[in-house]
Amino acid sequence: MAESTAHHQVHRDDMASKLGMWLFIFTELLLFGGLFIVYSVYRYLHPQAFHLAAKELDMAVGTINTVILLVSSMTIAMSTTAIQKKDKRGTLVLIGITLALALAFLVNKYFEWGGKISHGIFPGSSFLEELGRGDILFFGLYFFMTGLHALHIIVGIVVLAFMFVFVWKGRITHDNFQLLENGGLYWHLVDVIWIFLFPLFYLIT
Amino acid sequence: MDSTQNMDSTQSNRNGYTSFLQETGGRRGIFKWILSTDHKRIGLLYLYSMMAWFIVGMTLGLLMKLELIAPGKTLIGPQAYNATFTVHGVIMIFLIVIPGLPAVFGNFMLPIQIGARDVAFPRLNLFSWYIYVFGSILVIISLFGNGAPDTGWTFYAPYSFKTGTNMLPAALGAFVLGFSSILTGLNFLVTIHRMRAPGMTWMKMPLFPWTLYATAWIQLLATPIVGITLLMVAGERILGIGFFDPAKGGDPLLYQHLFWIYSHPAVYIMILPAMGVISEIIPTFTRKTIFGYGALVLSTLAIAFVGYFVWGHHMFTSGMSGTALFTFSILTFLVAIPSAIKVFNWIATMHQGSISTEVPFLWAASFIFVFLIGGLTGLVLGALATNVHVHDTAFVVGHFHFIVFGGTGFAFFGALHYWFPKIYGRMYDTGWARTGWLIFFIGFIALYGPMFYLGMKGMPRRYFDYLEEYHGPNILSSLGALVMITGFVIMIVNLFKAVREGTKVGDNPWGGTNLEWQIPSPPPLENYEEIPVIDKAPYKF
Q1: ipTM, interface predicted TM-score of the complex
Q2: b/e map of B30-50 (b: 16 or more CB within 10 Å)?
């Protein structure tokens, strides 16, 4: 196995993998950036309808989900500190809490979306067609943007589950924790996007 | 770290080292290729996949030219013609010219040129190729079922979600291919930042890596915009979400903006690495240090930067505000300046050089010729008044092919002939390569040249039929296509034969000065036994 001698065991470069992760985050932000452009254009064109439609959203659910994500960002950041202090059990507990909070977010989202859909508010519904163009666009954006965000939450859950296993199996240790830090960075990205979605849909009315 | 000591599973050649082509990693047959994370093998994987796709795309192009050889229906009807130019565009743009130079020669040469053993993330690199293959499968799927997509490669709304044809897989294919492009760009950025050999400061880096660096930023920052736009079109088709549907309050113009915010910078993804290749070839065959290295670096970055802000020039007749029209037009003229700086630098490099007209140089010189024509006709399109006259005519098709095929394509073939002896350690038959180039070049001019005239006379693009008065130039154009394809076949057959039968050549057949010419041909798996220390600027003779 000549190829494996050196090729795959090149020197570890934590800085490189961190740089790569940040570049990936740039890309992700610009993915949502396209949607933020669409949102601002249609908000500008339909201020009244966006104002009224935003009142339909439940600010309490939105706030709870914001708190959930902020706390989960804290716990994942703490897990990176815990692993550096050689506290394997603490790290696992903190990743576990983060995963539980992520699931809680999705459960909330499920009930929120379910409520909207049961009232006939979903893309392409005849009820929405009657409401008018501003409402169609607002709820179209609402489902598309929070949907894409929820997809990122799911990906984040998978990533963090892998981190949990890697810490468990000792692949991530106190002197080799870049993978966990990168996973944490991804989770912060998911959090940051929500920090923008929350005011755009729930707070600005 | 020394792979030469470890030769039990491979055979070494008579020079006493094992080249990457002999290195199997203990795998057999096709697995030597599709499981290897060696940047050189991955580059060749891309090369072979793209060549296969190029033949498909070229055949579709020929089909269109044969249809246009006479007015009225000659071969295919309107619907089939619409599908043909759509699929031709999707294949050529998303599967060939966008990944083209970075994925093939970037992968192969970047680590070698900066004195590294591989890219920063070799496994991610292989993964990008798998994403590429997955994207191409989606494009293939779009051809079956309800009929091939007929929207044009731009997928303009609202037609893209109204058409009954199978455009969803094609759009999703483009989305997936975007990911491959992003990950390649990300990989190159990190590689260039972290893995340059000791002593290789930014201003000692060769120009091909520089153009790859600028390109990688565009790939990273522009591609997600088209990704999300294509997802929105998918949402439109599947869920009826309404963003681009005028009936629901959506704005089709917004689609055009979002699409071109990516797709114009994408033109620079195509052309910047091509400029890098030309900057490699010209000093080698003029035996002169490149003229104005700093200006070439800065113009590369300037093109990448200004290129972000010119997308509106695709929409001059769409009804934007006057202010927007002026702004986009001025910026379009601005972006021509750094491109012109590059041309001046290449010419100045040749001035008083000791020019040897080897095959790669012929491709590079003809690149400058067609790129000039393509660039200057681009200014005709960038000026507001003339744009209205030639908008959506054959003139645009001519301009586009002079830049993208004449630019990226010629540079690609130039790079292929330049680095061929490095990649395979063998030389092709230069006589046939010359013949192939000459026939290709004549065919190219005959094929796309008449389009400028036809466009000026008002022949619209994207129609399977035309008025009798356009007949003459169209015959010339169609015959040009046949000549060009003859040249292409000669070139490819010649190269294919040389892979196995070409005469063996030394490590530096052209007398190049950069790092890639100082290692054996074909390079060993790890490129360098010892990472070189760089103490001089590139292109020093």
Answers
A1: 0.91
A2: eebeeebbbbbbbbbbbbebb
Binary contact (B6, A24; C-beta < 8 A): no
Residues of A with CB under 8 A from a CB of B: 1-8, 10, 13, 15-17, 19-20, 23-24, 26-28, 30-35, 37-38, 41-42, 45-46, 123-124, 129, 132-134, 136-137, 140-141, 143-144, 148
Q: Which tens digits make up the pLDDT trace of B320-330?
A: 999 999 999 99
Enter the tokens of residue A67: 């708190």
CA distance A23 to A92: 27
User: How far is A174 from A194, CA to CA, in rounded Å?
Assistant: 30
Token reading at B370: 């067609």
pLDDT of A6 > 90? The answer is no
Sign of CA dihedral A94, A99, A104, A105: positive
The CB density around residue B506, as the number of other CB atoms within 10 Å, is: 11
Chain-chain contact of B526 with A6 (C-beta, under 8 angstroms)? yes
Segments of B101-214 assigned E as strands? none
Q: What is the pLDDT of residues B400-412, one digit of tens each?
A: 999 999 999 999 9
Residues from chain A that touch B122, judged by Cβ atoms under 8 A, are: 7-8
B180 touches chain A (CB under 8 A): no
Report CB contact under 8 Å: B249, A7: no
Cis peptide before B522 (omega within 30 of 0): yes
Task: Look up residue B81 and give its amino acid.
Answer: Y
Question: Model's pTM, two decimal places?
Answer: 0.93
Please, are residues A162 and A183 in contact by the beta-carbon 8 Å criterion? yes
Nearest chain A residue to B2, by CA: A6
Q: Which CATH number fits domain A35-203: 1.20.120.80, 3.90.1150.10, 3.90.1170.50, 1.20.1250.20?
A: 1.20.120.80
Q: Which residues contact B134 (CB under 8 A, 6 or more apart)?
A: B176
Domains identified in chain B and CATH numbers: 32-518 (1.20.210.10)
What is the distance between the alpha carbons of residues B90 and B230, in angstroms, rounded to a whole number? 13
In the 8-state DSSP scheme, what is residue B460? B
Residue A124's region, left for phi above 0, alpha for psi from -120 to 50, else beta, is left
* Residue closest to B168 by CA, chosen among B197, B187, B147: B147
The 3-class secondary structure across chain A, one letter per residue, is CHHHHHHHHCCCCHHHHHHHHHHHHHHHHHHHHHHHHHHHHHHHHCHHHHHHHHHHCCHHHHHHHHHHHHHHHHHHHHHHHHHHCCCHHHHHHHHHHHHHHHHHHHHHHHHHHHHHHHCCCCCCCHHHHHHCHHHHHHHHHHHHHHHHHHHHHHHHHHHHHHHHHHHHHCCCECCECHHHHHHHHHHHHHHHHHHHHHHHHHHCC
